[in-house]
Amino acid sequence: MLAWSGAVLALTPEDALAFAEGDTSDRIEVMGRLAASGDERAEALIRAMAREAVKVRGEQVLIVEGDAAIDAVTGEAVTADGASSVMINNRFRGAVQRTLAGMDLLGDDVRRQREAALRLRANLFNSPDDSQLALIDNALSPPYASQLDSRARRTLEDARAALWLTSSDPAQRLAAAEALADVGQTIVRSMLARQLEAETDPAVKAAIAQSLATVDRALMRSNIAGQMFTGISLGSILLLAALGLAITYGLMGVINMAHGELIMIGAYATYVVQGLFRQYLPGAFEWYLLAALPVAFLTSALVGAVMERGVIRWLYGRPLETLLATWGLSLILMQGVRSLFGAQNVAVENPSWMSGGVVVMGNLTLPWNRIIIIGFAMVVLLAVALLISRTRLGLFVRGVTQNRPIASCMGVNTVRIDTYAFALGSGIAGLAGVALSQVGNVGPDLGQGYIIDSFMVVVLGGVGQLAGTVYAALGLGLLNKFIEGWAGAVLAKIAVLVFIIVFIQKRPQGIFALKGRQA
User: Fold this and answer.
1) Contacts of residue 208, Cβ cutoff 8 Å, sequence gap at least 6
2) 13, 61 in Cβ contact below 8 A?
3) Which residues pair with 68 in a beta bridge?
4) Cβ(29)–Cβ(19) under 8 Å?
5) Is the alpha carbon torsion for 202, 203, 206, 208 positive or negative?
6) Which terminus, N or C, of the chain has the lesser number of Cβ atoms within 10 Å?
7) Which residues contact 272 (CB under 8 A, 6 or more apart)?
């Protein structure tokens, strides 16, 4: 089936019909000839059969995708009226999958080579099948080996080792044990452990034991790396949630209990933009998230400005009153969202470029949405730091925060700066809502899960200190995930709270305490 004949044979109506109908053995034999022909229409027909998108009308074979249909032989558009689906049993389905794997492995498309090799390896790791050995040996032998991508070749060698591990030849079992030592996956550890119990040859048994120890070390490293990545990911989310609070509480002294609801508003703004793109710009739906960023920022900033102008401006210097007032505002915002969107969670989809992940260290997959959120958090942090330290607005905010009467004497409109600063902190909370919509549920209670953590980050890092906010967010994220892996989620949360209590007792001003005239 994989020995390409070199002859270019066009797909004929007779071959197409024989492939679609008839005895299973005859259909498999015809499929082998079609695969070896190298004809594009034959390949398209085989791939359509794998998707169960082939239908027959009389002696005409059709490829039907949704409402569209084409003639499998000529490629002309036709209607599918009166066409019936073809029968596919398990034997024929398996033969189609093996044929596609062979076509992909021996084709020129590197991406398909790698994907086919990965599928084959995964299948053999889970369910070893000696019938696949001929296909692998053929792909790894001349002249096809020279056409094979290096990564696909290494994957196929691992797949062959999985079959050799239970071979009757001790030399093959020994080679398999040595090859699988570099594949740090849990399923490989299970395969080696099973074979170690059944192995009778002393040399092979020693090699399997050594490989098992190597795999265990690789799994431990990948587990530690996974915990670190998860901790950094949680820390980046805490950082996004706490950055806005670092301005409204750290710089302005307002205990804003509605900060979580501003995050929620950013998430719902993302949901609304998603709906608008799906209805009016379906062709650009993949990029709705980029449009949601300014919308979420401006929406949350506007709500924050209204809160500051309507309630908070009368309460500066009275932190307990701001706590009570903003708690009431948070209840109003939650009820408003329930009235507009309902009490149930709403679905926010990940764009395709945020789906999937990158595989590292064999057993560790890093999701793209988490990687992008970490990068996004760093970008937002840099933008806030530059705005506070390098812009005129940042200078006025720092001046009003440090000495309001002198700033007012110098001509600074302190009332306007208060509104701008609070709107800025609220807008950053909206950006956090965009990020959170990509990793969790979006509902009226979204912000309640982050308000306490945000305050802990700001207080632990040092009030008004951006650097302290970064250290506290990442530190708490890593600490929480490492303890969670050892003691569970509940005990991890308790341990983190106890740590913060003890730390604040010893260092009330946080990691980065104000010094000199600033204090």
Assistant:
1) 173, 177, 192, 195, 196, 199
2) yes
3) 65
4) no
5) negative
6) C
7) 295
Report how far residue 178's alpha carbon sits from residue 217's, in angstroms, rounded to the nearest whole number: 15
Distances 482 to 74, 478, 495 between C-alpha atoms, Å:
60, 6, 11
Q: Measured over all CA atoms, what is the biggest interatomic distance in the chain, rounded to whole angstroms?
A: 95
DSSP-derived letter for residue 56 is E
The pair of structure tokens assigned to 243 is 């950055």
Distance of CA 465 to the CA centre of its chain: 31
**CA dist 425 → 245, 324, 476 (Å):** 6, 19, 22
Within 8 A by CB and 6+ apart from 347, the residues are 271, 442
Q: Which one-letter amino acid corresponds to residue 218?
A: A
Antiparallel, parallel or unpaired: β 357-360 and 364-367: antiparallel
Q: What are phi and psi of 252, to 5 degrees?
A: -105, -10
| Cβ–Cβ < 8 Å for 121, 159 | yes
Residue among 197, 484, 229 at smallest CA distance from 374: 229
CA count, 13 A, side-chain hemisphere, 456? 21
- Residue 396's nearest CA partner among 419, 412, 416, 420 is 412
Q: Contact, 47 vs 100, CB < 8 A?
A: yes
What's the rounded Cα separation, in Å, for the pair 438 and 158?
A: 35
Tens of pLDDT, residue by residue over 180-214, are: 888 888 888 898 999 899 888 999 999 999 999 99
**Nearest Cα to 350, choosing from 369, 374, 366?**
369
**CB crowding 211-234: b at 16 or more within 10 Å, else e:** bbebbeebbeebeeebbebbbbbb
Pairing of the two strands 77-78 and 68-71: antiparallel
Cβ neighbours of residue 174 closer than 8 Å, sequence gap 6 or more = 201, 203, 204, 207
Nearest alpha carbon to residue 254 among 342, 211, 318, 183:
318
- Could you report the per-residue pLDDT of 238-272, keeping only the tens digit for each? 898 888 888 888 667 788 899 999 999 999 999 99
Helix (H, G, I), strand (E, B) or coil at 226: helix
Give pTM, 2 decimals.
Answer: 0.75
3-state secondary structure 81-124: CCCEECCCCHHHHHHHHHHHHHHHHCCCCHHHHHHHHHHHHHHH
Dist. CA 323–CA 254, nearest whole Å: 8
CA–CA dist 193, 207 (Å, integer): 12
